[in-house]
Design a protein that fits this description.
Distance between the termini: 23 Å
Shape: flat
Number of strands: 8
CATH class of the largest domain: Alpha Beta
Strand order of the largest sheet: 3-2-4-1-5-6-7-8
CATH architecture of the largest domain: 3-Layer(aba) Sandwich
CATH superfamily of the largest domain: P-loop containing nucleotide triphosphate hydrolases
Structural class: alpha/beta
CATH topology of the largest domain: Rossmann fold
Largest sheet: 8 strands, mixed
Strand content: 5-15%
């Protein structure tokens, strides 16, 4: 996410960090590199001009030149201006004072509205809501079936009216159904078009009048760059949107759409899609994203991911096992699987301050490969062997290596690393460095 842009911006600002004193020429040269990085990231030209102008005005106006640490000060200014560009503050959903809250999802065909409807329902249910999904895409083949399949997978009810083509009527009855069921959240999935047209907009306006949504959320593909910004502008002009769900940001190394859309449309990004899994939708935090772009990390998001992935009871039980030396390979496998719930190693490493995921792709790939290898080795063991690693003699190790598609040497190495890690964590736990609580996994 933003890997290419982040690397270039960090390189441009690195030139200033070590200098004890900066001249206006130094700042201009660095900002020229910043400008080129933003344009290469497909950021809107006018947005780039305004951004550079704002940074330069602050930088040469005494805020930097008179500072004792001018390099750090200019990084601070760039960070603050990036936060403004990305939306300033975290924009929450407007929830109804009298339920149900109605969210209307709109967008072009192929943007992923149906999938995002399911992801959004899942995310808000974790926050204590009781959602109902309403299937209003009556044109795309199997669209209703897709939403119903998602609903079953997530155990969230889906309202549909087979054979009914009036989407405003479906939406209206869906809202009434939610009220009867005591559901406090309605998420309406609408049909998209290959391009913006009057028919599409009129249909969406009819739905708006029928259900009076509290939020109209536009779903756009972040990887389409300035096309996504233009789509947002068009929908906002014709319909009036309240916020944006930007998808596929995990695969976008440039980030031009995310950096341009708020400045161009005036509407904030509220959620971002960061993967294909149904829990890969996150609330968008401009300050955290700006920090990640500049290599400052995103520790708060990392902690939140850990808290969501790890059960406190399990953490307490793991600590007890560490203290009593009863931690086994079955527990080790469970820890690995919980780490995987947090996301890919690349995503996690990108949240660590000072770590450049873009520069260490090979190391990350090797780490991912090693985790898969360890998982395969442990899964090739019997339950008894996992619980009592001391049973693993030569013949058992050969069988495990064959079953996991690895070598005996790899099995031996994994067991040696497991024993070393177990001793190390027990030592740290005994010294109380974790405050008596193991918040993070043994990985």
């Amino acid at each position: 996410m933003f890997a290419g842009l982040g690397e270039k911006l960090q390189a441009a600002l690195k030139l200033l960090r070590g200098k004890g004193k900066l001249t206006e020429k130094d700042i201009s040269l660095a900002l020229r590199e910043v400008r080129m990085a933003l344009l290469a990231a497909d950021v809107n030209l006018q947005v780039v001009r305004d951004f550079i102008s704002a940074v330069k005005e602050r930088a040469v106006g005494g805020e930097v030149l008179e500072s004792l640490t001018p390099g750090q000060q200019i990084v601070k200014i760039v960070h603050e201006e990036l936060v403004k560009l990305l939306g300033g503050t975290t924009n929450r959903l407007n929830m109804a004072s009298k339920p149900p809250t109605v969210l209307l999802l709109v967008g072009l065909q192929g943007a992923g509205k149906t999938t995002q409807a399911g992801k959004l329902a899942q995310l808000l249910r974790k926050q204590g809501k009781f959602p109902l999904l309403v299937a209003c895409d009556v044109y795309r083949p199997a669209a209703i079936l897709q939403l119903e399949t998602l609903g079953k997978k997530l155990d969230i009810p889906v309202f549909s009216l087979p054979g009914e083509m009036n989407v405003a009527e479906i939406a209206r009855q869906g809202k009434e159904s939610a009220m009867r069921q005591g559901r406090d959240l309605v998420i309406i999935d609408t049909a998209g078009r290959l391009h913006i047209d009057e028919l599409l907009m009129q249909e969406l306006k009819d739905v708006q009048r029928a259900v009076l949504p509290h939020e109209v959320l536009l779903v756009v593909d972040g990887m389409t760059g300035q096309d996504a910004v233009q789509v947002a502008n068009s929908f906002n002009s014709a319909l009036g949107i309240d916020g944006i769900i930007m998808t596929k940001l995990d695969g976008d190394t440039r980030g031009g759409a995310a950096l341009s859309v708020k400045a161009v449309t005036g509407k904030p990004i509220k959620f971002i899609g960061v993967g294909e899994k149904l829990d890969a939708l996150e609330v968008f935090h401009p300050d955290r994203m700006a920090s990640r772009i500049l290599g400052m990390g995103d520790v708060l998001s990392l902690i939140e991911k850990a808290e969501q992935a790890f059960d406190q009871k399990k953490a307490d039980e793991m600590e007890r096992k560490m203290r009593t030396q009863s931690f086994n390979l079955e527990d080790y496998l469970d820890q690995m699987q919980q780490v995987k719930k947090m996301g890919s190693l690349e995503q996690l490493m990108g949240m660590i301050p000072g770590f450049s995921a873009a520069k260490q792709v090979k190391d990350i790939e090797l780490g991912e490969k090693k985790l898969k290898s360890i998982e395969a080795i442990i899964c090739s063991m019997t339950i008894k062997e996992r619980r009592k690693p001391e049973l693993l003699d030569g013949s058992r190790r050969r069988r495990i290596a064959k079953g996991s598609g690895t070598s005996v040497q790899e099995v031996n190495r994994m067991l040696k690393e497991f024993e070393h890690a177990k001793k190390l964590v027990k030592s740290l736990t005994d010294k109380g460095r974790h405050g008596g609580k193991m918040k993070f996994p043994l990985m």
